[in-house]
Amino acid sequence: MAKKEKNAEEVTFTPKGTGIRTNGEIVRSTELPDPTEKKHSDLDLSDDDVVDMFEQMYLQRRFEERAMQMYQKGKFGGFLHLYMGQEAISTGTTYALNDDDDIITAYRDHGWGLVRGVSPKEGMAELYGKETGCSKGKGGSMHFANVDEHFWGGYGIVGGHIPLGGGIAFANKYKQNNRVTACFLGDGAVPQGALHETLNMSQNWGLPCIYAVENNGYAMGTAVHRHSVGEIVDRADGFNMKKMVINGMDVLTVYEKMKEIADDVRENSEPWFVEIRTYRYRGHSMSDPMKYRTKEELEEYEKLDPVARIKNYLLDEDIIDEDKVEEIEDSVEDTVMEAIDFAEESDFPEKEALYDHMFAEDDYPFHT
Amino acid sequence: MAELQFREAIRAAIDEEMSQDEDIFVMGEEVAEYDGAYKVTEGLLDKYGSKRMIDTPISELGFAGIGVGAAMNGLRPIVEFMTFNFAVLAADQIINHASKARYMTGGQVEIPIVFRGPNASAGQLSATHSVSYDAMYAHFPGLKVIYTSEPADAKGLLKSAIRDDNPVLFMESEQMYGLKGEVPEEDDFTIPIGKAKVKREGSDVTVVAHGKMYHVATQAAEKLAKEDVDVEIVDPRTVKPLDIETIVKSIRKTNRCVVVDEAHPFGGLAAEVGYLIQREAFDYLDAPVQRVTLPDTNAPFAKNLFDEWLPSPEQVIDAVNTVTYRK
Question: Which of helix, strand or coil describes residue A273?
Answer without folding.
Answer: strand
